[in-house]
Design brief:
This protein has about 150 residues and is of the alpha+beta class. The chain is about 30% helix and about 25% strand. It contains 3 helices and 5 strands, in the order E-E-E-H-E-E-H-H. It has a 3-stranded antiparallel sheet with strand order 1-2-3, with no helix packed on it. Helix 1 crosses helix 2. The two termini are about 20 Å apart.
Amino acid sequence: MEHPEPGTVVVTASGDGVYTQQVTTASHTLLVDEPVAVGGADAGPNPYELLLASLGSCTAITLRMYADRKGIPLTRATVRLRHDRIHAQDCERCETERGLLSRITREIELEGELDDEQRAKLMLIADKCPVHRTLSSEIVIETQETGR
């Protein structure tokens, strides 16, 4: 498949498995799939793993950029994420009051000779990564059929 223009992602069935999808960007190609337990071939991460990878990598990159710009001796940031669903009434800081909602838990391990002030600032900066901002704001997804 031909690579799309920068900023565009194309997802199409790979033909290798029931759920296996080929994801193509301007310069990369990867597979996404479901686990064997739900009928997939486990040929790549599942869609939620990719979502978490986007948030985690954006968080780590944002921390690295900020530390470099401010001369903070961060040697490494490790981000661990999980996605689950919780009942809205169990969420203290959520606007939704009924039903289920998605929850992402993010743990950040900061390595380096950092003082308490630097650690606190880095943890604030983590919430400013562009993917975090996108996921925490209202999202509009516009869908249209093409190719007819």
